[in-house]
Amino acid sequence: MGLIDGNAIAQQVLTEVKAEVAKLAPTIPHVAFVRVGEDPASVSYVTKKQKTADEVGMRASLKVFPENVSLAELYAHLDALNADPDVHGILIQAPLPKHLPETEVFNRVSPAKDVDGFGTQSIGRLVQELPGAFAACTPRGVIELLRRSGVQTAGKHAVVVGRSLIVGKPAALLLIAKGCDCTVTIAHSRTADLAAITRQADILIAAIGKPHFIKADMVKPGAVVIDVGINRVADATKKTGYRIVGDVDFDAVAPLAAAITPVPGGVGPMTVAMLMRNTLDACLRIRNHG
Predict the structure, then answer these.
(1) What's this model's pTM, rounded to 2 decimal places?
(2) Going from the N-terminus, what domains does the chain have, and what CATH number goes with each?
(3) Residue of 11, 12, 48, 49 with catalytic role
């Protein structure tokens, strides 16, 4: 397998989504973005998502609130989006300012439109493996990478390094679910002898948010390594003054791995592609079932 090309696989997904969107005419799937403040990373992420939505024939709208927006004002907008029959998906760009309770805000989104998969009902349905559950876009993208790369998951030991609500926990749920059928270990910052755990992994997923944290001596030869990390490190040779690296020491680990994702060009493109897939799914459900 070697290098897992996230750009190429994401493009496959987007091509499929675009074809399905075209068949829905005159209905146009509509994803509504909500951003609070002007965090440069958030601005960049939302712009990329809007551009991709346009490329696949979807409508993308954006509401930007100032950093000091009140909870009442934010809720009023979310309630209006929930009630709008022409809006099929709602995405609140994280992180939010500290005065806004993130979990409560995510839960204000209708479960039928929770295309980010962060709401309590979405996660609960994922745990129960119920139809109609929206999986968070990044872990859903990880599963799609494995599937489309021909990685055998049934009976394999998957180790997820990181326990975030955005990646680690939902990734573990998807890996253990029927269809993937992995045996799953979740490791984190308090795990004793982490390297001994990661060396057991047939499939190692790094989502800890530390540049080059996973070293060669932490990886079993022949493992499949999925690097979810997106970290900025100083690099004077770049115009920006930094470069993007993953949580895995790619140069050291790649020779050991049966397959590995690069950063950039691995999991990142899949996150956006799966948002488009989730939005299309939401549109189909709302159109067919109300």
Answers:
(1) 0.95
(2) 22-111 (3.40.50.10860), 137-269 (3.40.50.720)
(3) 49
